[in-house]
Amino acid sequence: MTRPLRVLIVEDSEADALLTLRALRSAFEVTHARIETAEQMRRALREQSWDVLISHIAQPAASARGGRWCGLRPQAGASGWRTSR
């Protein structure tokens, strides 16, 4: 039995996202969403809890590193990100 994994994918290429999902599905039962914009990211973070965020760092709509383009910042004292609300 595979373990569940909730994945938020920041990727402008559907084909690249599918390759990522194919690799993850070999070890996990994946629930995912693919997003391309900062607004989609904010909405996805409000609506659901995610185990991991995978980002295409060179994506045109998300050129800043580390998710800051959509208001994310490192969470002090923990490994992870939180929204800047």
Attribute tags:
2 helices; three-stranded parallel beta sheet; flat; 85 residues; alpha/beta
Order of helices and strands: EHEHEEE
Q: What radius of gyration results from the CA coordinates? A: 13 Å
Spatial ordering of strands, largest sheet: 2-1-3
**Major sheet: size, sense and barrel closure?**
3 strands, parallel
| Averaged pLDDT | 79
SSE class: alpha/beta
Report on this model:
- The N and C termini lie far apart (38 Å).
- This protein is of the alpha/beta class.
- The relative contact order is 0.22.
- The mean pLDDT is 79.
- The longest helix is centred in the first third of the chain and has 12 residues, at 14-25.
- It contains two helices and five strands; from the N terminus they run βαβαβββ.
- The protein is flat and about 35 Å long.
- It has helices spanning 14-25, 38-47; strands at 3-10, 28-35, 52-55, 72-74, 81-83.
What's the short version?
By secondary structure, the protein is an alpha/beta fold.
Strand-helix topology:
Blueprint (H helix, E strand, L loop, with lengths): L2 E8 L3 H12 L2 E8 L2 H10 L4 E4 L16 E3 L6 E3 L2
Parallel strand pairs: 1-2, 1-3
Antiparallel strand pairs: 4-5
